[in-house]
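Reproducibility note. Readers wishing to regenerate the assembly model reported in the main text can use the exact inputs given here. Chain order matters: entities are listed in the order in which they were concatenated for prediction.
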Amino acid sequence: MTMNKQQATSKAVTSSRATNPLINWIKKNLGAIIALAILVVILTITTETFMVKNNLLSVLRQVCVNSFIAFGITCVLLAGGMDLSVGSVVAAAGVIAVQLANQNLPIVLCFAVPLLFGAFIGLINGTVISQTTLPPFIVTLSTQIIVRGVSYVLTGGQPAQSANQAFNNMGTGSVLGVPIPVLFVIVVFIILYFILYKTVFGRHLYATGGNAEAAKYSGVNTKWVKMRVYMMSGTLAALAGVVLAARLYSGQPSVGEGFERDAIAASVIGGTSFSGGIGALSGTVLGVLIIGVLNNGMNLLKINSYWQFIVKGCVILGSVYIDYLKKAKSK
Amino acid sequence: MPSEYIFEMKNITKAFASNVVLDDVSIAIKPGEVRALMGENGAGKSTLMKILGGIYSADNGTIIIGGEQVSINSVDDARKNGVSFIHQEISNIPSMTIAENLFLGREPRNKFGLVDYKRMHNEARKALDVVDLALDTHLLLTNLSVAQQQMIEISRAISEDSKIMIMDEPTASLTTSEVNNLFEQIKRLKQNGVAIIYISHRMEETFKVCDTVTVLRDGKFIGTKNTKETNENELISMMVGREVDTIYGNRRAIGQDTILEVKNLTTEKVKDISFTLKRGEILGFSGLVGSGRTEMALGLFGIDPILSGEIIIEGKKADIKKPADAIEAGIVLVPEERKAQGLVLNHTIGTNLSFQVLTSFMNKLRVNKKKENKIVNEYKDKLSIKMTSVDQLVGELSGGNQQKVVISKWLAAKPKILILDEPTRGIDVGAKAEIYKLMSDLTKEGVSIIMISSELPEIINNSSRIAVMNEGKLAAILDPEKDDISQENILSYAVIGGN
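Running the prediction on these inputs yields the following structure tokens for the assembly.
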């Protein structure tokens, strides 16, 4: 009784001690920050080509595609879901975008139509998942296969080359020295940050992932939350596909195999919980950078591409393990 | 015409598939009235209230609030009609802050329609102050004790400023002072004309805070009584549908031979615990939530590492490092959290029940299904578990029957010492009586029981002796032959500790 109250107040005191958001953020993401720092230091020392402006810019350009997908995956994981269909959506959206670009349609349409397609796939995922008790893993695995098929059907299996310079510029161009895709990522990050932390929907998304039953009992429309979050993920994957197609001047129906792996890895390295409700976009940015720098560094170090898989897997496991140790300690 | 009732539910009927859970039930409550809703598990209390709370919708019937017929199809509708709900199973988001939890689903917004965190925390502060909870509103729920989380639930319902408040087992995890605080709140709400529907299995509370009591049985309305004009036995008879003399078992005399001797048991959570347990004895463990009762058991059972001290079973020193050692030595623990620690809900009764003794009827590599069925049926009869078949999923059973499956699972291991942690939490009065009878039968067979419980009447009426814990230490062991075992005395040891 009196004991309880003392505990309560002492807890209140400890929590108000560390309220500096930056320090909190560093503490939360310590594993990822250390991993990234170690990678950068090693690569700066062992190669002359890493810490060079052009290389760094190209790393940034390369991580953009994974950024969009990983942002979407993070939102889905936060809501307690899973989306394996993103890799296929990347391919289909890229194919659609290039086909439109080759008709010389306005750039806005070349973006809008594939994005709507991505949202539509998300709507299908979200509808099935929220209206039934089918596991998200199975539902999105199925749509992954279906959408892969769609992109092959659209192209007859052949890559579609883009001859539209204005469209290609969206992937390869720069504004004031900053690659255009990077600008897209920044804008998307700001919008998503706003949605997650400032809107009621954002709160409901976290609540749905944290404890769906409790959220429902509090009057949160969890089905609608799930539908929207899969639509977000589908749209973001489509954006990744359009930007990738613009960068490669072509829409390739076979691209994007395994992209969901890198995106999930980035989210998890960035501290997003697989069981929902816990995580943040800023952590995902760190995760995306770690994977991007790792890929780039291994190429610069001329590591055999077969070995790259092994290294990457170990880095992901290591980083998640550090996170686990931290959590176990705090308990 | 204004009605004298703040709300009425008329002719409510609800079925899940072909299973009728509410059959033509009507209730009406006046402003400022506290109405207990009683009945065994499965009687339909929670379903009726979930219809009022917008979680289920009725198949038939009408709801009238403030004299007007309303349709409640969602939690939001219920809230708009002034209905708030404190749920039985704690329903919060562990990864969110206190303030976010308090205002989930009704977040304060600024003029741009965005979440207004500043106002949210200010309002949350006020809501916590009302229930006297000195916690930072930025704390995550996961960092709070179970009792604190329950108080958050309560303060949330209060802060909704509703006219009708449903409380489903609100005191299940509260300490006495918190229960008193809740009763103060109920009094205050009553004066403000709020109608409260109070669902509880604890008779004592019903008589203490409720004006009237409605009993449901098997989805049917049985009757409404004034609490001043009825008594415990009458209510129990109404609930179970037959005359009941007493729900408690007989208190067993303390036997002669010592089966277990614990000397200076110390773990990270408890200090210097020494006691003996006689054959066929029920030793009750009382104390506040967090006083170390459960932790004492976790030490004995080899889950929490033993730092120092000795455990002697039938004269032999037992070296318990892990649960397997304890089971080997004849100690089993039926844990407090039935669902989390004791059962695999989506497995069948058969697999759950035989889990503990599986190795004893493995047929080379295969589970001997026949033997499994035999054991299940043996315990089904012994404990009168209500089930359709061995292959029924445990999750489909009522709380009382689930508890029986957990107990059977451990009995199948033929223990000498049975530790029961909160054996009757959240189960109805009929099932409670059966569990008490089972305990009494077991002791007659020579099994010794350590029963940990927060319910004082249960402790007092079933225990041969009563151990009281306080802040990780044993405050007293009370013998009804010699000592005062009134609730007041036990509580004073629990709060103040030993000399």
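We highlight two features of this model. DSSP finds 15 helices and four strands in chain A. Residues 1-18 of chain A have pLDDT under 50 and may be disordered.
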